[in-house]
Design brief:
The chain has about 850 residues and is of the alpha+beta class. The chain contains 24 helices and 24 strands. The longest helix is centred in the N-terminal third of the chain and has 48 residues. It is globular, with a radius of gyration of 33 Å. The two termini are about 25 Å apart. It is found in: Cell membrane.
Length: about 850
Amino acid sequence: MLKATLRSFLAHKGRLLLSALAVVLSVAFVAGSLIFSDTLSRTFDRLFATTAPDVTVSPRETLDETVPSGMTATLPAELAARVAAIDGVAAARSDAEVENITVVDDENETVGPTTGAPTIGTDWNPDERSPVELTSGHAPRGPAEAMLDSETADRKDVTIGDTLSVIAGPGSFKVEVVGIATFTTTNPGAALLFLDPETAREKLLGDAKAATSISVDADEGVSDAQLKQRVAAALGTDTYDYRTADEQAESDVEQLGGFLDIIKYVMLGFAGIATLVGIFLIVNTFSMLIAQRTRELGLLRALGADRRQVRRSVLTEALLLGLGGSTLGLATGIGLAAGLIELMNALGMNIKSSEMVIGWGTPVAAYVVGVGVTFVAAYLPARRAAGVSPMAALADAEIAGIGRPLRTRAIVGGVVAALGAAALVGCVTASETGSAASLLGLGIILTLLATVIAGPLLVRPVIRVLGGAFPALFGSVGRMSQRNALRNPRRTGATAAALMVGLALVGGMSVASASMSASFDQQIDETLGADFVVQNGNFLPFPQEVTEAVRDTPGAGLVVRSRLTPIAVRLPDGDRVETTAAAYDPQLDEVATITYAQGDTENALAGGNLAMDLDFARDHGVRVGSTIPVEFQGGRTTELTVGALTDQDAAEGFGTQGGLYFGLDTLEEFAPGGQDSALYVNAGSGLSADELRDNLERTLDPYPQVQVRDLADYKELVHDQIAVLLYLVYALLGLAIVIAVLGVVNTLALSVVERTREIGLLRAIGLARRQLRRMIRLESVVIAVFGAVLGLALGLVWGVCTQQVLALQGMNALAIPWGTIVAVVVGSAVVGVVAALLPALRASRMNVLAAIAHE
C-alpha cells in the first residue's frame, strides 16, 4: 500500500501542484509574520536595553494618554545634582526631550518622517549608551545651533550650514545645522534634532529649570535595583516614577508593542484567509482525484486492501502534500520577512536582514499549519475513498458519486443557517453594543458555515438563472457549459466557496464602511457649524502661537479653541473610568450644534462644571447636579458638578467614553500647559468664506503641519481614515481571489481530464476548438459568478447587521455601495475567464482519437 500510495502521489503531482500553492501561501504568511515580528521585537529589545540608563527618574504619570494633549510632564532639573550626591551614584544628568515638535526647512517643507513616527527634539548629552554618535561637524553650542540625525538629513537633503525652523510648544525658533549624528543601532523611524542642554530646556520645555527625566548611572558594584531603592528613598515615592534599565526597556517595548502587534495581526489575518480558502481548494482537489480513481480504489479493495488502508493511503498523500507545501511556504515566508524588512528600511528604519530572527516556534507553526490544513481538508475525501466498494472497479468512474443525495447537507445546513439567522436577529435587536457585537460574530461564523454546507443545494436553482441566457446567446455550446456546471453540485459548490469567502468579507466591510462614511457625513452636517476647522494633519496638538496667528488673521471673526486631556472620573456606582475629555471656549454654541437632554452649553462650560453623555450618566447613576471626583494628569484632583447631559450620538460626541467636556478655564486650572487640538473659525462680517480661507492659508504657511478644512474637507478626511481599513480588506480580497483562481483552474483542469472521452466525442462530431474553449470559459464564468452572488448576498446581510451594531454607537445611516457590488460581479466574470485560459487551451489541443480511446 505504501508503494502504491507513493506511485499514486507522483502520478498526480501536477494535479496537486495548485493545491500545494494554497498551502505555500498560508504557511508563508504565518512564517513571514512570525519572523518579521520576532526580528522587530529582538531589534527593539536590544536597542532599548543598550540605551536605557541604570535608573531613570521621571514625573509620575497617573493616567494613560490615549489621545495626545500637548502637555509635557516635567521635573526640576536641579534634581540631577541631588541624585548625583546619593551614595552609589556614579553620575546623574537631567534630560530634556519632547516628541511634539515640527521642523521645517528653508523651502517650508517638513523635515521629519512621513510614516507616523515622531520628530524628537532632545538635548545633546552623549554617553556610552547613546544610540548616535557625532560623525560630521560639531556639537551644538548656544541657542542658534542644532544637530540632525544622518538618515533624516539624507532623506530631506539637509546639510551642515542649512537653516531650519523649529516649531515647539513654547514657540518657534530658527537654528543652523552644525553637525550630523549617525545611529549606531536601530533607528525606530524617528527624526532626531539635538540642541545644547540649556537651549533644549528653554526652547522645548519653556523653562530653563525643567527637565523631562533624570538619567542615573550606578557605581561599580551597585546593582540597578539597589540604586533605584536609594534614589527613591532620597527623593520620595509620591511624586516621581523610578525604573531600572530593564524596567525602562520593558516600558519602551510596551509602548511600541501596539505598532508591532498591528503588523503581526494583519499578516496573520492574511494567513487565516489563505488557510480558510485553501481548505476549500484542497477538499475539492482530493474529492475530484478520488472520484477519478474510483475504479483504481475499487481494484485495490478487490485485491484485499481494507477500508483503513485506503483511508490511510489518501491521508498519506495529503501528508506528503502538506510537508512539501510547508517546506516551500517556510522558505517563502523567510523571503517575505526579508522583503518586509527592506520595506521598513525604505520607510526609515534601520533593520539588518542579517539579524533576522527565526525562532524554533516559527518552523513548528509553519508545519503545524501546512500539514494540519492538508490533513483536515483531506479527511472527508479519505473517508469517502475508504467507502469505495470492490464492485466500483466495474463501474464507470466518470459518473461515480455524482448522483448521491444531498439530504444530509440540507438538514445540517438548515439547522446551522437557522442558528446563524437567530444570532443575527439577536444582534439587530440587542440594545448593548457588547452583546450585539458578540451575536454578530457568532452569526457571521454560523451563516458562513451554513452557506458552505448548503452551497451545493443552491447550485442548480442559481446557476439555471445565471446561465439562463447562455443557450440563447451561445447556442448548444452555452447549453453544455451550463449543464457541465450543474453536473456535480458538490464540486461546483466547493469551487465557488473559495471565492465566496473573500467576496462575503468585502461585501460586508464595504457596506459597513459606506455606512460609517454616510453616518459621519450626516453627523458633521448636523453638528459642525463653523466655516473652517484648523487642525494638525495627524490630529496632534499645535503650539499656542498657531492659535494667536489664526486670531490675528485678517477677516477671522470668532475663534473657538478645543483641547483634549486624559482624566479619570469616580462615579456614584463605584466605577473608576479613565477616558479622554474635551475642553472648549464658552462660545461653543456658535460653531457647533449640541443636543441637550438637560442643561445647556452655558451650564456645561461654567467653572467647576462638566457635561456628560445621557446614556453614560444613566448607566452609572449620574444626574444633573451630581458631584463627580475628577483626576487630571499629574495627580491633581477636584470635584466637578454635572451641569448638563447631552443627547448626542456617541460617534459625534465631544470626547470619547462618556462624552465628557468642560470649559477651558476649568482645564487650565487643573491641567495647565496643554495645547489646542482644533480651532473652529467663523468669518468676520463683510468677508466671504473663500476670502477667509485664502487669508488663513497664507497665515498658516509657516506651519505646514496645520491644515485649514471646511465641511467638505472634513468629510474627506473622515472618508480617508475609513478607507485605510477598506484597503486592508481589499488586500485580503486580492489574496482570496488568487487562491480562488487556483481553485477554479484546478477544478477545470481535473474536470477536463475526467471528461477526456466526452471531449473527444464532441470534437469527433464537429465541435470546433474555439467552441470547446468557449464552453469551458463559460462554465468557469458561471461558477465564478455563482460564488460572487453567494458571497455578496452573505456580505450584504453581514454589512446590514454590522451597521445595526454601529447604530448603537450613533452611526445611524445605512449605505450600500452598489457601484462596488456591480464591479465585484463583473470582476468575478473576468476572474472566471482568466481561470479558464489554461484548462481550455489544454482541452482544445487534445488528440481526438486518443481522447475517444481514453479509459
